[in-house]
Amino acid sequence: MFPLKDNIPTERFPAVTVALIVANVIAYFFWQRGGLSFADPSSQAYLQNLYEYASYPYELTHPGEQCFPEGSQVTCDTGNGAQHGLPPAWLTLFTSMFMHGGLLHLGGNMLFLWIFGNNVEDSMGPVKFLLFYLLAGLAATAGQVVIGPEVAVPNIGASGAVAGVLGGYVVLFPRARVITVIFIIFFFTIVELPALLILGFWFIQQVLFGYFDLSDPAGEGGGVAYFAHIGGFVFGFLLIRAFASERRRRRQVDLARPRL
User: Fold this and answer.
1) What sign has the CA pseudo-torsion 241, 119, 224, 93?
2) How far apart are CA 259 and CA 4, in angstroms?
3) What is the pTM of this model?
4) Residue 17: what pLDDT?
5) Residue 81 has what pLDDT?
6) Which positions of the chain have pLDDT values less than 50?
7) What is the set of domains in the chain, with CATH numbers?
8) Where on the phi/psi map is residue 120: left (φ > 0), alpha (ψ -120 to 50), or beta?
9) Does residue 169 sit in helix, strand or coil?
10) Who's near 34: CB < 8 A, 6+ residues apart?
11) Strand order across the 177-184 sheet
């Protein structure tokens, strides 16, 4: 399934949503120096940036220790962070949210952020939405750390923060509908499906993949951090009411109703 557009209108221009998308795109192409596919392992600029600014679960559970590359391996110990010019672990919690492993990774996250983020932002305003987004990203990292606290593998991506937006959207607009492209082998069709079905299916998929991936929960082979997605989604689902305005939400829903 490939969502294109939902039926919930916005009253205000989603400035923060757009700014986050622009920031992620700029970070990928000009800061990470990413290409049109997954990073070329021979790209030293990309790999150096990855090792320095990604978030490592090990660093977060071992205060004072930092991870750095030594040849083809990652080493973690005390006192070498400054020597290798590494940023503090707390900073990588935020820098990692704006990094991606390839164009498809970036494009998928930004598509979901645009479709569902504009309405969530409209329900709470720009300042609260930015705070909500960043906290969802932190909750996503926490979910991954709980599952793999000893793992020294770089974690990157906006997926966890975007998952928080999806969790909040489900609570705010359970009856929303989304125009979706469905691919069937070599054919595709465009249908309108309930957002609850699309996002519920996505969450169940993350839970199942995470369950079967417990033998390698942090994606040590370069996989997907499913528990980060779960952590972000659960955060958004449980705490959206603390950020969103019920008055704004009702107005958005009223605008979505067909007029006779």
Assistant:
1) negative
2) 23
3) 0.90
4) 98
5) 55
6) 41, 218, 220-221, 260
7) 2-256 (1.20.1540.10)
8) alpha
9) helix
10) 28, 46, 100, 102, 103, 106
11) 2-6, 177-184, 187-194
